[in-house]
Amino acid sequence: MKLSTSIFKLGVFAPVVYAASLQQVTDFGDNPGNNVMFLYAPDQVAENPAVIVALHPCGGSAEAYFSQVPDLPPAADAGGFILIYPGSTEDFNCWDVATTESLTHDGGSDSLSVVNMVNYVIEQYGADASRVFATGSSSGAMMSQLLAGAYPDVFAGISAYSGVPYGCLAGSPGSSPQTADPACASGQIIKTGEEWADLVYSGYPGYNGSRPAVQIWHGTADNVVYPQNYDEAVKQWSTVFGVEMTAQNPDTPLPGYTQSVFGDGTQFEAYLADGVGHVVPTQVQPMLSWFGLV
Predict the structure, then answer these.
(1) What gap in Å lies between CA 69 and CA 146, rounded to an integer?
(2) Quick one: pLDDT band at residue 262, thresholds 50, 70, 90?
(3) Helix (H) or strand (E) holding 247
(4) Contacts of 253 (CB under 8 A, 6+ apart)
(5) E strands within 110-153?
(6) First-to-last CA distance in the chain?
């Protein structure tokens, strides 16, 4: 079934490109998190395509998130890259960002299930293992930052919307608003940059390779995941990369949004949206630019 159409104009010629459909994959390998996997592969997949993992918020689903970020599938059609939509099925459909298993490389739980979805796509579609990315909102943003910490060998970059730093919920009895220690989401977990960075390093002990480029977004009026988490994530990732803020660009990419650039702007950047609550809408073009896909 065709879900939508996109029109690209070249001069006076405007061919119609028909989008593919969202398909469930029922056997993608080991699934310790008991997650579900949906896949969006364009009709015209690029040779050695890039892959983006799109992670839904608490209470959401893979199918719902596919619709909630409507600009992403047409971008995949245009660029020939593949989208993975994982689905959480436990703890009010929130991603496990609290257990040692999920926080640790090859430890298990949701994070390993997501990585096995990536491995499936690499094998089945000849995807480029050096161009695998993750994005998500709220709980999905928390998992995106977790994946950056625990699987830096798998992901080349992330873009996280209204999340918390890696390890903020470590040891919590759950990861949902109903089960989690509320101290993290309410911005009460305050650490130094070095302490936050050490948590990232603990996700993959002994790893000394390159790390995913990290882009974070947060709203100043977020009263679900308090904006203090933006400040803590800035401390965490700027310390991991050993970079300081070098520029601030107001009204970028939208009025009221401020872009903070760190170092040479290739490893870490952060956006604070004035007056925006929970969740910051996904900004597809700046995200794809960060991933090097446009």
Answers:
(1) 21
(2) very high
(3) strand 245-250
(4) 259, 271, 283, 285, 286
(5) 132-137
(6) 28
Look up residue 182 and give its two tokens. Answer: 């509320």
Print burial letters for 145-169: b (CB count within 10 Å at least 16), e (below 16): bbbbbbbbebbbbbbbbbbbbbbbb
Residue among 256, 268, 174 nearest 221 (CA):
256
The catalytic residue positions are: 138
Domain ranges for the chain: 18-291
pLDDT in tens, 29-77: 999 999 999 999 999 999 999 999 999 999 999 999 999 999 999 999 9
- Note the Cα 61 to chain centre separation in Å: 15
Specify whether the CB–CB gap between 157 and 227 falls below 8 A.
Answer: no
The reply to whether the predicted model has a pTM over 0.90 is yes
107-148, pLDDT tens digit by residue? 999 999 999 999 999 999 999 999 999 999 999 999 999 999
The correct answer on CATH 3.40.50.1820 for the domain covering 18-291 is yes
pLDDT-based confidence at 22, cuts 50/70/90? very high
C-alpha neighbours within 13 Å on the C-beta side of residue 159: 21
Q: For 174-196, what is each residue's pLDDT tens digit?
A: 999 999 999 999 999 999 999 99
Q: Kindly give, in sequence order, each residue whose CB lies less than 8 Å from that of residue 113, ignoring residues fewer than 6 positions away.
A: 30, 31, 32, 33, 34, 35, 86
CA-to-CA distance for 230 and 217, rounded, in angstroms?
Answer: 8
d(Cα 34, Cα 36) in Å, to the nearest integer? 7
For residues 213 and 3, give the distance between their C-alpha atoms in angstroms, rounded to a whole number.
32
Q: Which helix (H) or strand (E) holds 249?
A: strand 245-250
